Amino acid sequence: MSKSLTLRGVLALCVVVLSFVYLTPTLTSSLPGWWTGFLPDEKINLGLDLQGGMHLVLEVEAAKAVESHLELVVEELKQDLRKSKLRYMSLERFKNEGIQISLMRQGDRAVFREMAAANYPDFEVKEISSEGERSDFHLILETRPRNRITKMAVDQALETIRNRIDQFGVSEPDIRPQKDNRILIQLPGVKDPQRAIALIGRTALLEFKLVDEDHGVQEALKGDIPPGSEILYNDKKQPYLLKKRTMLTGEYITDARVQIDSQYNEPYVSLSFDAVGSRLFERVTGDNIKKRLAIILDNTVNSAPVIQDRISGGRAQITGRFDMEEARDLAIVLRAGALPAPVKIIEERTVGPSLGKDSIEKGFKSMLIGGVIVILFMALYYGLSGVVADMALLLNMLFIMAGLAFFGATLTLPGIAGIILTIGMSVDANVLIFERIREELRVGKTPRTSIEGGYSKALVTILDANVTTLIAALVLFQFGTGPVRGFAVTLSIGILSSLFTAIFVTRIVFDYLYVNRRIKRISI
Fold first, then answer.
1. How many CB atoms within 10 Å of residue 85?
2. What's the Cα-to-Cα distance from 259 to each of 171, 205, 303, 366, rounded to whole Å?
3. Taking the complete model, does pTM exceed 0.85, yes or no?
4. Count of beta carbons in the 10 Å neighbourhood of residue 325
5. Per-residue H/E/C for 71-104
6. Rounded to whole angstroms, how far apart are CA atoms 178 and 57?
7. Three-state SS sequence of 228-245
8. What is the DSSP letter of 514?
């Protein structure tokens, strides 16, 4: 028994020491250098309701994703028509519904229908008119693929925004989808809301297009825009006449980093492409030497340098009059990828830290009052045994806070409510054990036998009550969101901690007092 008691005591002591180690970064703001080398240095994260921050609701303009999909299909259809030797007068997107095409020969109608049915099963083919040799068709996008594109746009936007925020460095952001193509974002502790909004909402569509050097910009500005060309502007409103065809997009980017120009000491963004992007970039630059290639970000021309030679190795750079912060944000959005569709802010709220401070004070005040009442009751009603239970309660609080730090969980206001609930639950197991010990003592058993009987008889009831509550907490964590998950986290950690302190730690104390020290009378 003595050897077993020593081992159990050492184990409990190790858990206590480890808890203080994990809580040290939260308790002090200045850690020695050697600490951060191999010991944990993460603080307990506070939720939006406790430390303030940003609350955003974004709406994904999914209709734009459908439009982009239709534009891609138009380009694919042009290639298929050329392969099938089908001549057409016009081919363009028809609103947000589908594609409109005018064939030049009546005899091509059947071949076109067959080709469209085989290659474009998501579209319903409708012939709308036939005049002379001309035949007009509408390819209408079906409802099911339209809904699939919309859902995919929201899912991709959610993942892209999450990647951007993760690289932005926000601790424990809450990002989740809502109905009507909306996304809820909560960013605790954000100090620069406008920068965060600009980073989240930026589409970041990167394109490389050739400058149309065969026609003049001034003539195009007067309305004489050549077919296959378009006018875009830089941030200084300087116009560029560009080829509409996109030679390369940012989808092939594998990395984007901020570097400093050694000549001008200005930051720029260095891009790296994957294998496919490297081949495309090398081919584009090799086929267009001495021509200008415009780098376009969100329909704004960043620069249009002259291609001096074929560029291999899959590297490019975006220069401009960036400051370091702008360059970093640009690198973040390029690394995370472009949004599949624009997003607009439906709701924006900034939660001040004063609200969080008030919530923390009231939460800890209620926890303190509840704890004091429970401690006094246990000590008065159960004597020395109640004091042992109170010690277990204090250790339980220590283990809960250390558990939050260990798992990197976020403490929210509902989380504080979960801790307050575990104050009552943590002594509940001891009450069951003490009442069983009392029953054993009433029938005349010795203190040692009474303790063993009390713990063994109460164990099944304690496990049953706590395990069922733990299952409910895990279900809340899995399917709940935001505040519900915060409550579930602290409740789950509290249940596990209370089981450890009530069954394991208090038993060590009782065995030491009434078995090892052989005290004849139990104060219970």
1. 8
2. 26, 21, 17, 52
3. no
4. 12
5. HHHHHHHHHHHHHCCCCEEEEEEECCCEEEEEEC
6. 9
7. CEEEEEECCCCEEEEECC
8. I
15 pLDDT above the threshold of 60:
yes
- Which residue, among 405, 486, 413, 357, has the nearest Cα to 51 in the 3D structure? 357
Which residues touch 165 (CB under 8 Å, ≥6 apart)? 173, 175, 185, 187, 196, 199, 200
Q: What share of the chain is helix, strand, coil (3-state, %, to 5)?
A: 55, 20, 25
Helix count (H) and strand count (E) of the chain? 16, 19
Looking at residue 132, the DSSP 8-state letter turns out to be T
Paired strand residues for 479: none
Q: Which pLDDT tens digit goes with each residue over 228-278?
A: 899 999 988 999 999 988 898 888 899 999 999 877 788 989 999 998 889
CA 415/CA 486 separation, integer angstroms: 5
Q: Are 344 and 257 in contact (CB under 8 A)?
A: no
| Beta strand residue intervals within 107-252, DSSP E | 123-131, 134-141, 174-178, 182-188, 206-210, 229-234, 239-243, 248-249
Report DSSP state, residue 500. Answer: I
Domains and CATH numbers, the chain: 2-52+353-516 (1.20.1640.10), 63-146 (3.30.70), 202-348 (3.30.1360.200)
Give 363-405 pLDDT, tens digit per residue.
778 878 887 888 898 889 988 899 999 999 889 989 999 988 8
- The length of the chain in residues reads 524
What span, in angstroms and rounded, lies between the C-alpha atoms of 65 and 308? 36
